[in-house]
Specification:
alpha/beta, 11 helices
Length: about 290
Amino acid sequence: HARFASSLSRKGAFTFVPRPKIDRKFDEYCARDEMDDTKYPLVAVGGKGSGKSAAISNWADHRASAALLQNQQLREFIFLHHVGASRDSVELFHLLRRLMHAIQERFNLPVILQNTEEGLCRELPRLLKLAASRCNGVIILVDGIDKVMTIDGSRAGLKWLPFILPPKTRFILMATEEGDTWQRYLNWHQNNVGRHHGGGGGGGGGMPSSSSYSNKNDDNDEAVMQPSNIMTEVARRGWETYKIDLLTEQEKIKIVDRFLDTPRNVHGHGTLHAHASFKLYREAMRRNSTSNKD
């Protein structure tokens, strides 16, 4: 995980372009002067290729570096998990064991970890509370929450997460969703069903049926699609979401420029900047950007 995260870092061969808007959102959610408050997880959603993994990896690196400069590194616990970085990383069991072992090791806790998913899920809230009581903030970052699988091969969803997080605990979860269906569904759910923190309740506050959701959107020209299980759970729990937009043309141009200007000993591709095809690609991107402005 550390190797994968470093490959996405501005310190490595990866060409990274800062996106201050995303950093500000994560900073706001994890504000140090509000760490004593209880907050629900933040779910950051974006399409494929929107830069979610790079954004969360570089934010985590920046947060840790800032803590080091402020002599706060021993008072804050940051855990980053990239789902898909290794073969085992997609398994919920592996994610929980890795997280809980990191907490156990960091705070020297005399805890015997369970050997089942169910046992680890039951133990997680207590371990988070112990960790939060021993530092100024616990920040858990999971990139690819929608891809986590249980031991039987089904999607884990959000069932393993506590309904209520302890104070001084923050979760930022990255999920992949294409288009704006998930946003329209969340708006519909909030307006018609309301928020049900902690997993919803009985009575008339259950999840809407597919037909009821479709009927509410019959006036839309775009074909109505069902939301993913993750976004259905997010809506039911009333968690905050944040949309990560696709890269703009200017950001794409900046990435190509920086990649071509990077010394060859970093990328290991020789004098890449002299290759004609890359020059043509860069010029085409700039032409398209100029024509779009006009």
